[in-house]
Amino acid sequence: MENCDELMPDYLNFIKGVVDSEDLPLNISRETLQQSKILKVIRKNLIKKCMELFNEIAEDKDNFKKFYEQFGKNIKLGIHEDSTNRKKLAEFLRYQTSTSGDETSSLQEYVSRMKENQTSIYYITGESREAVANSAFVERVKKRGFEVIYMIDPIDEYCVQQLKEFDGKKLVSVTREGLELPESEDEKKKFEEDKVKFEKLCKVMKDILDKKVQKVSVSNRLVSSPCCIVTSEYGWSANMERIMKAQALRDSSTMGYMASKKNLEINPDHSIMKALRERVEADQDDKTARDLVVLLFETALLTSGFSLEEPGSHANRIFRMIKLGLDIDEADAVEESTSAAPAVTKVEGAEEDESRMEEVD
């Protein structure tokens, strides 16, 4: 009997072998197996045998690297589907990190390198290593000396939804709200002062952006970026939103609900935010300030991995800013484009040709 789904789970479909038993119960046609406790016992033992085999392969690092390149997705699928063996399968995961270079590390190796004051495993999901390594989300985490795991495989999004912790350490996404990093008393005090100082700017920005964001708040995760878009704890990440948009049979209602949970976090130490705060406090109805807020939000969407709903509007705002930088008057630009349009002249003999065409018709 071939392709017996009852004996092996889907994620181990690359395993080939023969199961020989005198106790397998067949149906009356003797073509298919009947459900019984014996099948469950055999299935459990086969999975256990596979785990032992993976352990043997993992002892040779070079050999396991080749194995993982071929079947790493199957292991991640197993973490998503097999709750019984999830903990064991997690030991076989391998990822590049912010400190590992081109080499990959296991979660156990990551835990062994954790700092004394570190209580969580930090990770970021994205489209490529370059994108996640240069992301605004990892700025503060890396500056504090904490290692960040780079998850760049689409199936990692599904895998990490089920794998909540490893070795007693919680897995924390650096792209979600509520990221807590170990801070000194002075840093906590400064953060509270910044929240008060930028309270009005946050309120004005929320009013301008309206339903585009859930809230605007002061961030403690940014270093060199002026702002970023973070998702709520239960919303989709930017990478997950991109993956779901590519699904042909996606649920539109779920898409609209899960994708809408975005929060804008601003960097209180950035010169742009300081200047914008002063401008808003002077006149919160300043048209240029409103334009800048929308432009900052749309730019933050792009740098945070999201896509724009109206790229044309974003381009027009960029063009307006370029004109301001070049001291080009809007009226002059329109007049210039009008005068540049060539006049259409009537070709000699065209009327005669038209009349001939009418005769043919």
TrEMBL record:
<protein>
    <submittedName>
        <fullName>Heat shock protein 90</fullName>
    </submittedName>
</protein>
<keyword id="KW-0346">Stress response</keyword>
<dbReference type="GO" id="GO:0005524">
    <property type="term" value="F:ATP binding"/>
</dbReference>
<dbReference type="GO" id="GO:0005737">
    <property type="term" value="C:cytoplasm"/>
</dbReference>
<dbReference type="InterPro" id="IPR020568">
    <property type="entry name" value="Ribosomal_Su5_D2-typ_SF"/>
</dbReference>
<feature type="region of interest" description="Disordered">
    <location>
        <begin position="335"/>
        <end position="361"/>
    </location>
</feature>
<keyword id="KW-0067">ATP-binding</keyword>
<dbReference type="InterPro" id="IPR001404">
    <property type="entry name" value="Hsp90_fam"/>
</dbReference>
<feature type="compositionally biased region" description="Acidic residues">
    <location>
        <begin position="350"/>
        <end position="361"/>
    </location>
</feature>
<dbReference type="Pfam" id="PF00183">
    <property type="entry name" value="HSP90"/>
</dbReference>
<keyword id="KW-0963">Cytoplasm</keyword>
<dbReference type="GO" id="GO:0016887">
    <property type="term" value="F:ATP hydrolysis activity"/>
</dbReference>
<dbReference type="GO" id="GO:0140662">
    <property type="term" value="F:ATP-dependent protein folding chaperone"/>
</dbReference>
<comment type="similarity">
    <text>Belongs to the heat shock protein 90 family.</text>
</comment>
<keyword id="KW-0143">Chaperone</keyword>
<dbReference type="GO" id="GO:0051082">
    <property type="term" value="F:unfolded protein binding"/>
</dbReference>
<keyword id="KW-0547">Nucleotide-binding</keyword>
<dbReference type="InterPro" id="IPR037196">
    <property type="entry name" value="HSP90_C"/>
</dbReference>
